[in-house]
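Continuing the batch. This is chain 6 of the set; chains 1 through 5 are on the previous pages. Same settings as before, nothing changed between runs. Recording input and output for traceability.
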Amino acid sequence: MKILYVASGIPVPGNLGGSTHAYEVARGLSLRGHDVHVVAVSREGHTNLGHLIAPAQQQLDGFTVYHIDIPKALSLLSTPTIIAIAHRLQPDVIMERYYNFAGAGMIAARLGKRPTLLEVNALIVDPPSIRKRQIDDRLGGPMRRWATMQCRWADAIVTPLQTTIPSEIDRTHIHETPWGADVDRFTPRPAQRPPDHQPTVVFVGSFRAWHGVAHGVRAARLLLDRGINARFLFVGHGPEFAQVTQLAGGHPNIVFTGAQPYAAMPAILADADIGIAPFDTHAHPALQAAGFFWSPLKIHEYMAAALPVITSDITPLNQIVRHQHEGLLVPEADVAALAEAIAALLADPQRAQQLGAAGRERVVAHYSWQQHCAELEQIMQTIITPTPKST
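Output for chain 6:
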């Protein structure tokens, strides 16, 4: 198949979660023998209005990237350019990553009468408490109507949780498809550690309230103040960076690396012993409204690296990581429980390794990018060659 994948506003390559997702989907589909073309930006926040006339083109790991560098909120300005790309490529299917102010790929598919796959990674209609929703309501709901129209145009929709999709959309068009980890890139850490290895607990992700990074730092301080020997590594950046570095109080065993490129992540995880993901949905109104609709990359990558995982006891996280099978589950926002779970695994490294090995087996079987792309391929083949209706 020839596939045009529109990921407006997403840097490819890049170190955002969306960057990893778009890159791995494009790469995974190309490895399955498809001719993949991606529309993205070269880097976050970069603007080059000349790209609306002549997108920068790059070959990357088996697929082609067209960089249209305009602000993400102005993504629809790229519609004529994407229509032109689609007309030139004549793709068998157009897949678009949903974003409030995007939809150029869906328009191009509609005009060219091409099958469409809408990829939804967030709640399409914001809950009433969100400012953007309040503005949209005052204007009569144009954003909601545009989002719903795209869903109706789509021949198929893929999303980790179907509650992201408005209730009026036909549920038979929706495919719940979890994200994954590259199980060839992320591999188990060495069985034998150097003599001077210090047990390491790692957090990877955005420093936003709902990721629970502050809970992780507070748990680290509790354990270090008790004299537990461990290093706590926090990888990433975001709005809470200043707050959590202050919480750390300059302790030498709490290390902040800042944002790291995707290529560096396998080595970072290979040097760790435990992965934590203390998500807190109380800090995210959309997650409260629709349920935990994210399919967390960090958890899948921890598991692929054979790290035992400590995460919040909420659906679907407690279905990915089963308590005492692949890791430990703790109540949301319970710093004391998080600290005790970390302490338990640090005190029993053999048990920690057993949980990590089980996690590796589980992610290979159920949560790899390789499997995700195989499912996408099957969905695309279905919409390209629909089953004839019985008469």
